[in-house]
Every structure is written in C-alpha cells, then in structure tokens.
Design brief:
The chain is an alpha/beta fold and 117 residues long. 27% of the residues lie in helices and 25% in strands. It has helices at 17-32, 71-86, and strands spanning 3-8, 40-44, 59-65, 95-101, 108-109, 112-113. Helix 1 packs antiparallel against helix 2. The longest helix is centred in the first third of the chain and has 16 residues, at 17-32.
Length: 117
Amino acid sequence: MPLIKIATNVKDDSIDQEAFLKQAGVAFQETIDKPMSKVLVQLQLDQLMSFGGTTEPCAMIDVLSAGKISKEENMKYTKALTELMAKINVPQNRMYVIFVDLPRDNVGVKNTVLSEL
C-alpha cells in the first residue's frame, strides 16, 4: 500500500498533471517493487512553500508504506523521486523526502485492516 504525497510550489499550469502522476506512479512502483494496483500518488501543485528562504521551485514528499522502509530502500526511493522531480525543475537540493513505515494494523482497506488480509 505505498503512498507518495508530493507537495510542490511548481505552478499547476506548467506541467501535464496526468502524465506526471503516471510517471510518478510507474517510477515509484518499479522502485518499491509492489503491484501498481496498490500504489497511490497524491500531487499538490502550486503550494505556498519556501525552502532556504526563497520561493524557487521546491518540494516535500511523504512516502508511507506498510513495510519496505529501510535505510537501503529509502536511498533508492530518494534517488528515483529526486530524478522524477528534476523533470518539473525541482532541484535535488530543494526538497525533502520523509519516510513513514506504517504498522499493518494502522492501515484500513476493504472494510478491514491490512494485517487481517
């Protein structure tokens, strides 16, 4: 159940949003090695954000997953997400990627929780 939430101050009229969502999903699915049917991508463009005191393009990405979160994996995810964000002109030094490993009991799906599936 990996979820990536991308918040950026990149303007919503400057990119093809559907194409970017698809690219993000594919890039992350290939990196995390979970079925595409389980990958959720949320994109928030045109956010009021500053990084390092300027409003040049920047981003914050939250990666939430029940498992598959570790130092080695997080380094792979960061690389893939950094490369993805470069496509919309967000430099690698103007973003943070935050990782959250969710307990399976704390994720609801299909009228139950993941630990029961």
